[in-house]
Amino acid sequence: MPALQPTYAPYPFALVSAHGDAVVAEDGRAFTDFYGGHCVCSTGHSHPRVVDAICAQARSLLFYSTAAELPVRTAAADALVRYAGPHIASVFFCNSGAEANENALKLSAQLTGRSRFVAFAGGFHGRTLLALACTDLPKLHAPLRPLLPACEFLPFGDAAALAQADFSEVAAVIVEPIQSMAGVRTADPSWFTALQRKCTDAGTMLVVDEVQTGFGRTGTPFAFHQYDLAPDFVTCAKGIASGFPLGAVLFAAPVAAQIAPGDLGSTFGGGPVASAALLATLEVIEEEGLAARALAAEARIRAGVEGTVVTEVRGAGLLIGLVVGGGHAAALKAHLQAERVLVGASADPEVLRLMPPLNVSDAAIDHLLHAVRSFAPAGAA
Ligand SMILES: Cc1ncc(COP(=O)(O)O)c(C=O)c1O
To answer: What DSSP state is assigned to residue 239?
Structure first.
């Protein structure tokens, strides 16, 4: 039995280093990284400004909890709230996406006095109890049933199902702007408008899970900026600090005003090194124009896969789903790996996911495109 409990089917090689959009295996082989370590490496692997900020902060103050005010944490909160735009009033720092969602869902129940939730088929929100209850993984729910609150799963993007749903007893609706794990599924802007209106009318909190879509990945600071949405909570993690563990819950002003000291807490959340990493990440994203870069990269990828085995391109910016019909997606993924390109699978066996660093180079994109074009599906003439 390995000492490290197996949790995931890893690559068949160990990684020892990574820079920019490339990762390097133990045997010296370099791979172009279109997976980004689960959509995390927003500014590229080991961006020098992020690394310098982390090292400098670690040397001066490695850790202190919220028992003390830390200028670096205050600066990180100010920068993130400014980055999120005028709808967001304040932030709570935690350590992961699941924890961010757990806190948003818990506060929704506390503030509404309700205990039911609504989520969407195919949605993924994490593995803590409330987040898991709202994640469409029935296999994991079954043994925990008595511990999980009631959560109704509606079809994502379905206007008729939304119109029929009753939110009157619902504490919160949680939604990903783009359902990544489900196969990079998008919904019509009018559906988001209707969802917001229904939540407002019912006094139901809206939690927008931007754990994958945040920090410029879809072309705007957060994906909710592209829709007619005024979320009560926006949850983030993954790309927030370029790979240093950090999660955050962003609050709209009316919610922020109702949270009392003591309602929230986390020993490690928003520690000084994580805060320094967040500050540097935001500076890089803004100064290097990475949201615009994500859109330019998307356009290059969309144009480049035309006429290949890819029959449809889903998503926005650098959260991309390549639809590969005919049962060839797994073979394409294996071919890309043999060609030294890493991509992700999804819950949809026909969809491969691309979520590379936002500063992925044109040369890296061309490497991907060349590898896709050189794929010959088994059985093809
Ligand atoms: C949309 C979304 N929300 C939440 C999570 C949970 O984040 P974490 O693994 O940091 O707990 C994930 C993880 O993949 C995710 O994709």
So the answer is: G
